[in-house]
Amino acid sequence: MLELKNEKIAIPVVLLAGLIWSFGPLVVRYMNEPNLVPWQYIFARGLTIFLILNLYLFFEEGKDFYKNYLKIGISGIIGGTGLGIAMITFIYSITNTSAAVTLLCLAAMPFFTALLGFLFLKERISVNVWIAIFIATVGIIIIALGNTEKNSLLGLIFGMTSSIGFSIFSVTLRWKKETPKFTTVAFAGLFCFVVAAIVILSNDMVFLSTSYNGALFSIHGTLVCMGLILYSIGSKAIPAAELTLLSLTEVIGGIFWVWIPILGINEIPSTNTIIGGFFLFMSIIYYSLTIKSNRRFIALN
Question: What is the pLDDT of residues 169-180, one digit of tens each?
Fold first, then answer.
């Protein structure tokens, strides 16, 4: 299975993963009343991710790819569950508040990841990375101060839960090197699929939304899956906190795509959001320019 060991190659790969994810909020905004069919969305997206990842593993490893599930271990189960929770709470966040609020919550991932990485992986964060995180913090605070819409608190809670779930996934990617990374992602898709199916059956709901919504559910699942493949590939060469810091391209791009009028949504961000997004962008630029001085201290890898 492909893993990048060279950080100079891994960095643009992770940046690209964030860019692909950034189209997610745009796809959600094109859906017809996604707030009324969240579990159908979670069901379809989880199934799409599970199928695509297993097809990828089949072509990568042949018919014995299923044996990866026998080696997934506790780290894979924890990581897959964390990612699954992140996927579930994402839709509840973005349908209860603006894309900007949801995305600024995701921008908090480096903080949670740094803490989890320090506690469980003994990853010491370099001064340059802390400076980059501080710059990103300023941006997040500025964005938060500019968003006071109704239901923003509910969206904020779900958004922060999504951020924590993804941070757990990011840390487990670097926990045990023998854990099959893509199988962990596939497990997350299965987790969403099973949980959604249970909720739908328990509440006597239909499994499918409209064909239009169903197509968008699958498109979003495909985008998420593509990004996760790239993110997992690049994870071995970059410490957990820095990994999530680089993926902040999702935040910047996501706010931009739902704003630009030519794409038909025109969800205009506040002045605070624009200024805060600039700080987030500068934090990524600063990190990229100082990467050579960042040292690695990995204990359990």
Answer: 888 877 776 677
Measured CA distances, 245 to 24, 26, 83, 208 (Å): 18, 22, 17, 36
Is pLDDT above 70 for 291? no
In tens, the pLDDT along 112-162 reads: 887 788 788 777 777 887 888 888 888 878 877 776 666 677 887 898 899
Query: Is 301 within the bounds of a domain?
Result: no
Give residue 265's pLDDT: 82
Number of structural domains the chain divides into: 1
Spatial contact of 224 and 87, defined as CB atoms under 8 Å apart: yes
**Is 253 within the bounds of a domain?**
yes
C-alpha–C-alpha distance, residues 86 and 14, integer Å:
18
Residue 51 in any domain: the answer is yes
As a whole number of angstroms, the distance between CA 147 and CA 100 comes to 8
For 26-67, give the DSSP string.
Answer: HHHHHSSSGGG-HHHHHHHHHHHHHHHHHHHHHHHH-GGGGG
Question: What's at 163, amino acid-wise?
Answer: S
- Angle among Cα 157, 279, 298 to the nearest 5 degrees reads 75
Residue among 145, 90, 93, 108 nearest 273 (CA): 145
pLDDT score for 298: 30
DSSP letter for 125, please: P
